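Bumping with the actual sequence this time:
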Amino acid sequence: MPRTLTHKILADHLVAGELAAGGEIGIRIDQTLTQDATGTTAFLLLEAMDVRRLKTELSVSYVDHNTAQFGPANHNDHLYLQSIAAKVGAFHSRPGNGICHQVHLERFSSPGKTLLGSDSHTPTAGGVGMLAIGAGGLDVAVAMGGGAFYTTCPRVVGVELRGELQPWVTAKDIILHLLGILTTKGNVATVVEYFGRGVASLPAPARATCTNMGAELGVTTSIFPSDDVTAQFLAAQGRGDAFVPLAADDGCEYDRVITIDLDKLQPLAAAPSSPDNIVPVASAAGTKVQQVIIGSCTNSSFQDLMMVAAVLKGRTVHPGVELGIAPGSRQVLAMLAENPGAPGLAEMVSAGARILESACGPCIGLGFSPADDAVSLRTFNRNFSGRSGSRDDRVYLVSPATAVAAAITGEITDPREFAGRCGIEYPQIPAPEKFKIDDSMIIPPPGEDEAGSVEVVRGPSIVPPPRGEKLPAELAGCVLIRLGDKVTTDHIMPAGSLLKLRSNVPEYARYVFNCFNEPGEATFAERALAAKQSGRAGVIVAGESYGQGSSREHAALCPMALGIRAVIAKGIERIHQVNLVNFAVLPLTFADAGDYDRIEAGDELAIDDLVKTVASAECVAVRNVSKGFEFVCNVALAPRQRKVLAAGGLLNYTREGGK
């Protein structure tokens, strides 16, 4: 029977379950990646499992988030990560080497392999035919220890690409167009698989843009076939031996097919404040812009930035605009600086751009936060409200072509109109025949014998995370907060300057739902701890798409530390739902969405016989003790997840020998 590319790779790695959409499967993981904002916790959890040596083919510990090192906590993390990587057998990519997704695409991605990363944008590697999935750090730790990764067997949505992109229309516009169709919700347990004649016209970095930002769809991952374009990219990276031709079988059936005519696309933007609030750039033309940032793991490749340099050559950034450019990797930065006879870094600097470190930076709210009421155009992947570091920000997500046009004109401008006005042709940047290869900032692990003498460096800010506790026989709890739709993990656990606290869960937990705290009132953390001390469980109630966005497990781990034992929502996104289970927080969804409107913060809720509920129930009755009514919730758990919850979380389950 003809198979999709997704099912081919899953079949090659299947260790548990059957490839039937909706059922739970376990797959073998070939590679893992972590980054410093999630990696410290992941490696601490690995140590808690008593894993002495990694069992994956390849694991890489990246430092790309907390690189500015304000105070000692960031550097404490870096030293711990470098030393623990050497101890257990992981590669270590040092700060300054680049963003994990860009560097992994360049130096380690491998068609047909599986990659599990503690970052939601791990699917970037799907641009070269890799099945790359974002997950919480605990799942990654289990994989590093040789355990399988368990997930729902996905349905596969085929995206057929036809034609070719027209000048000034880019891969960013492809994924923005798809977000306009599928939106950010309703796509749990889905893989997006690209196919069609139009695929061949897209270079590997352009494909990676689509798979990277595919994370905003809420899908498990996205993937392109591995073809001649893939082979050329890997050969240019000096890794031609990693190439394997891979594609879906002719005649395979997709659960849904979406056709995109590339030659009919126009420049698009995600308007504030959601990646699926898609509008044509032309419809927003004339909007004054005060800030433009080009880079992040979505659009910071050599070809992206060379196009920007070519447009900036001989021009000056508008006096009302601050332009920042962040190359995605040290490789990209070096090639921009050492590109004789062509525009590059010098032209960017001459035009007035500020060159930022090859790191996540502004994408996660670390620097370049826009002014009050300022419009910021970014080539990033997320524009959730407040993610930039400014509370009521006005962030648009656009392509590098649209971004550079705005940087010069001072307003949102259709780059096609800009080109016509200026009389410039779209810079066609060919894929390099050979990339500059310098892996001196990637430290390979020592041999196992030598690793035995490595001393792991643990600064005072490195605190072992708390373990999950078994759920009580009965839940008697208080609704501590009632939230609306699309509450992201940024809302639950703020990033930005607070990222440095992630290695210290008790301290970081003080900031849970910090954005919803009102001046002069008790914070969420204070209310949660008070309930915990009184012997009552904390309960969170939310609307649709609760927990969308980043894979950060701290959005489950920190609430658990505060005594949260259940989340009841209209819908919970994939990674967050798994993280809740991993830390023994019961995820429930309303059987009747209308019951959400009947609950208020402060209501006392009760669930009888939690042991039976967790063991086998598909639904459970929840009593609103305060208001005197009962409502029903769905218990959508796979058999293994029920065992994990019963054990008090994945760490306990793994230590007890569970698989």
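The tokens above came from a reply further down the thread. The CA atoms of residues 35 and 67 lie 11 Å apart.
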